[in-house]
Amino acid sequence: MSLALTPLPRRVAALAPALPVMAVPALLALPLTADGAGPADVLSGLVVVYCVFRLLFERRRPLSPAAAVVLGLPVVGLALAAMGAFSSQAGLTGLGRYLQTFVLVPAAVLLLLRDRSGFRLVAWSFVGLGLCQGAVGVHQFVTRTGASYQGENIRAVGTFGAHDVMGMATAVALGVVCAVGIALGRVSVRQRVAAAACALVLLLPLALSFSRGAWIATVLTCTLQLVLTGLRRALKVAAATFAAGVILVGGFGVGSAVLQERIDSIAQVADAPDQSVVDRYTLWASATDIWRQHPLTGVGLKGFPEYRDGHATLALSSGSETDGPGMKYQRQPLLSPHNMYLLVLSEQGLIGLLALAGSWLALLVCGTRRLVRVRARGPGLDCGLVACGLLVWTLTDFVYGDIGGPSTVLMAVSMGLGAWWALTGEARVDAPRSEVPEPAEEALAR
After folding, report:
1. Domains of the chain: total
2. pLDDT tens for residues 88-128?
3. What range does the domain containing 407 cover?
4. Is residue 31 part of a domain?
5. How many CB atoms lie within 10 A of CB 380?
6. 165-168: Cβ within 8 A, 24+ apart
7. What is the pTM assigned to this prediction?
């Protein structure tokens, strides 16, 4: 007797390729090893391999010509910068990291997602990661077991540890952006209410991360998401968010004094900056000076630390301080200018910056144009708000930070979600389902 394989239901078969992508953020909820390594990076590489095998098995065309050009554009500057690195090991290491973050993983995400349901599955995994990391972070603040901040172990860092204070802030902020996008979209009422509740809950751990860059990027991104859905709704949501913030900080006194001081420091960066701001300005000036001497191709991948001291002023400190439970006090060297654009400019030159930033700008422009079309027509608004929101947040955060650490894989998946929305085309995503709306969308239309 022969056993016939029962085919999977159509909806399950469509979601199956998205499961490995969803697992990447899920693995970041697990504790990291002592050296900061984690399984999410390994899984992102396996996702790329899985995507290749799936394409070979299904005999599908890998990418459209437009997608191949946009996602492949950074390779030009990266190849030149890798050849100009001060050592072959540094060049190969940097090349692999950049390709993983901005080319391979985004392309794999674009190819594995088949419809809006798969996209939403990955977006909800971002929200889930933010909730997990945020819960750990709030517990750290309450029990004084977080990273050291002004002499107290109160900084929420989640499972990323005191050596990566931006990890939890990135995870929680991206969770907020996804939750806000879903809440503002045309999905079921249950999903919108759940997403709005998650966004409000995530505001607390985001505040307790004390990350000014994440705050600025999140406020800007969520404001743009709200404005794109209508001014009246934007005002209502802004009022509700403000009320929630007053209750959390003012009513319960959740770190109100420390938060107020941190917020005030944003406006004091020019008048009376603290040492971290002074270091950042000094590093920015150093990166700019390096670029002036190597304008076209830069000093090569991983080359900024080698040239930093020769261009920095005496205002630069020896490193940033890290301390917290479970780790010894140490000073971490400042190995990057904490600005992605200036890092690329100094190491890859003008060619590299135009190639990499050109790819990002193309994704943002194409994604925004499609979002405007979908906003007036109907289905997929939540996906557009999430995709464009993730791109805007990442590109804004790059003004204050750069890639590095386990949370970098989140940015890679974010780029993939943005690429899926911007480059898949109307035929693949909206047809034929545009004529047969999803149950939730059909109910809302009524």
Report:
1. 1
2. 898 899 999 999 999 999 999 999 998 899 999 999 999 99
3. 66-445
4. no
5. 28
6. 165/209, 165/211, 165/322, 166/211, 166/213, 166/214, 166/401, 166/405, 166/407, 167/133, 167/405, 167/406, 167/407, 168/133, 168/134, 168/136, 168/137, 168/205, 168/209
7. 0.88
